[in-house]
Structure formats: structure tokens, C-alpha cells
Amino acid sequence: MMTVYLSHGLESGPGALKTQALKSIAEKLDDCEPVVMDYRGMAEPQQRLTHLLAVLAERGDDPACCVLAGSSLGGWLSAAVSAQQPVLGCFLLAPALGLIDYPETSPNIQARHTHIIHGWRDDVIAPGPVIERARLQRLSLRMVDDDHRLHASLDTILLDFERFLHQCGADARQAIAG
Fold first, then answer.
1. Phi, psi angles (nearest 5°) of residue 3
2. CB neighbour list of residue 110: distance below 8 Å, 6 or more residues apart
3. Residue 6 in contact with residue 22, Cβ under 8 Å?
């Protein structure tokens, strides 16, 4: 069983458009359980990071069978968790990298599979630090002509996410069988 943790951004919630759209993709797959995180009432990145780590520990999911997906602050959370415990996959949408107020401005992503989607016109999270992290780690990066919300790129995001989950699922099944 592959578990997909979905983390929303700073000012959104578990019912946000992208979170629910990603959840619907994960629900279509066999042996895939989406877990939608709820960080409302937790303003600080460290609070959210502690909460996500606690949920991972409470559920007892094998990190080698976990995909962390998130948008903006949720993308940073996914990257930060993977830096502490390597995971199967990180799918990051406009991840909040390079922000000096965060405990780790650019976490070293430790995932077997990583895919990042970021908008060229993002005026909330500058593309530069995201491009640099992808370059340093040779991570898959898709730059799109969109802003921070990435709503104009939703179809592309969902196609990429479905393909990404299929790749991760094949690896998870091999690990279990192996």
C-alpha cells in the first residue's frame, strides 16, 4: 500500500482546489491511500512540520512507501520531511524554498522520485531558489507559464501527478515483492 500525504499551503485548507484534485487522482489508483493534512490554526512552518511528522509516526506508514505532495508551504513541508526521513516520492507545487523565515530555507530532498512544478510568473515564491535546488540535486522540474496558484496549469499538474504516482507505485510494489 502506498500512502500519499497531501499538504496544503499557508492560506488554504484541506478543501483547496489543488489538494482535492490531487486526492481524486490518488483515489483512482489501486493500493493507494490519500491522507489530506489539515494545518488550519498552525501559522508557523515548524508547527506544521512537527504535526506532519507526528501523523507519519502515529500512522506507522513505511516511509519507503510514502509520497509527500504539497503546494507552497505544503511543498516545503514535504521537502523538509524527506530531508529528515527519506521517502518514496516528493511531488512539489510552487514549493516555498528560499524563504529566510523558514527553519530550513532549502531542504535537501531525499526521495526516490521527485517532481517539481513552478510558475515562471510566481510573485510569492521566486523561481530562482526552486530552480537552483532542482539543479543541485538534478531533480525533475517543470516550469509553466503561470502564477503562484498554478490554477491555469491544473490539467498539466494532474497528468504529471498521475504519471508520478504510477512510477512510485511500481517501485513500491517491487520493494514489497523484493
1. -105, 130
2. 82, 83, 85, 86, 87
3. yes
For cell 523561481, the residue is 127
pTM for this entry? 0.97
Q: How far is CA 144 from CA 2, 75, 81, in A?
A: 28, 17, 25
pLDDT tens digits for range 129-171:
999 999 999 999 999 999 999 999 999 999 999 999 999 999 8
Nearest to residue 53, comparing CAs of 72, 40, 39?
A: 39
CA separation, residue 18 to residues 48, 85, 104, 143, 165 (Å): 19, 25, 25, 17, 16
Q: pLDDT by residue (tens digit) across 54-73?
A: 999 999 999 999 999 999 99
Spell out the residues 6+ positions from residue 115 whose beta carbon is closer than 8 angstroms to its own.
89, 90, 91, 92, 139, 140, 141, 142, 160, 164
